[in-house]
Design a protein that fits this description.
Oligomer: single chain
Order of helices and strands: HHEEEEEEEEEEEHEEEH
Number of strands: 14
Radius of gyration: 22 Å
Structural class: alpha+beta
CATH architecture: Sandwich
Number of domains: 1
Helix content: 10-25%
Number of helices: 4
CATH topology: Jelly Rolls
Shape: globular
Largest sheet: 8 strands, antiparallel
Strand content: 35-45%
CATH class: Mainly Beta
């Protein structure tokens, strides 16, 4: 019977296999794609950095390394780059305005005056001076160095987002003197004029940084 034949044919899984949903691109892959061909944008997972210290940018645009051998951070497979107050890592970047987003911890014993981004973003207990750029910690705004210190002072990992940050010729995390004490697990650095969708890139950066918290 034609109707029966049609029913059996449509029900044959070999002829009409069930649809399988395609897995969504990962956040890392999304960021790599967004930064493709953007020479001043990259993302870093410091848990994967080499011990002589070089963090290859996952978008292959900029690799971060210690300024000199004596300034290299130790690498922890869970915490990432261990920043001891003298560790400094950076790379040449074009002069411009940047977004820097970090998954980082501050040592509660570190009262400051301590540089997260060299000569730019500093936390310090009791210091009412303003922060460079616009800074949030876990999406909560902080406006002073003291606010930034207090928001990080529990020793837990936080997502620190710095936008509208002027940088000249390079971007360096930490500083050889008065650098931050704690750790940086992941980082995203982007020249704000380069991503086609800056707001989207910032949102994906925060989501990617929040993955894999130890």
């Amino acid at each position: 019977m034609p109707g029966l034949s049609l029913s059996l044919t449509l029900g044959n899984p070999l002829l009409f296999p069930p649809s399988v949903p395609t897995s969504a691109p990962t956040l890392e892959a999304d960021l790599v794609a967004a930064f493709s061909g953007r020479g001043n944008c990259d993302l870093y997972d410091f848990t994967q950095a080499t011990t002589y210290y070089r963090a290859v940018g996952l978008a292959r645009n900029r690799s971060l390394s210690q300024t000199t051998a004596s300034l290299k951070p130790d690498i922890d497979p869970a915490l990432g780059a261990i920043m001891d107050g003298t560790a400094q890592m950076g790379a040449p970047f074009a002069t411009g305005t940047y977004t820097v987003v970090l998954a980082m911890r501050k040592d509660p014993a570190d009262g400051g005056n301590s540089h997260i981004v060299k000569n730019a973003v500093v936390y310090a207990d009791g210091d009412g001076a303003g922060t460079a750029g616009t800074v949030t910690v876990d999406d909560a705004a902080v406006t002073t160095r003291n606010d930034l210190h207090d928001a990080l002072d529990d020793g837990a990992e936080h997502i620190v987002s710095i936008t509208g940050l002027p940088q000249s010729n390079s971007v360096d995390l930490g500083r050889s003197t008065s650098g931050m004490i704690g750790s940086i697990r992941r980082a995203v650095i982007m020249l704000e004029s380069e991503p086609a969708d800056l707001a989207g890139a910032r949102s994906k950066a925060k989501a990617w940084l929040g993955q894999g918290v130890s």
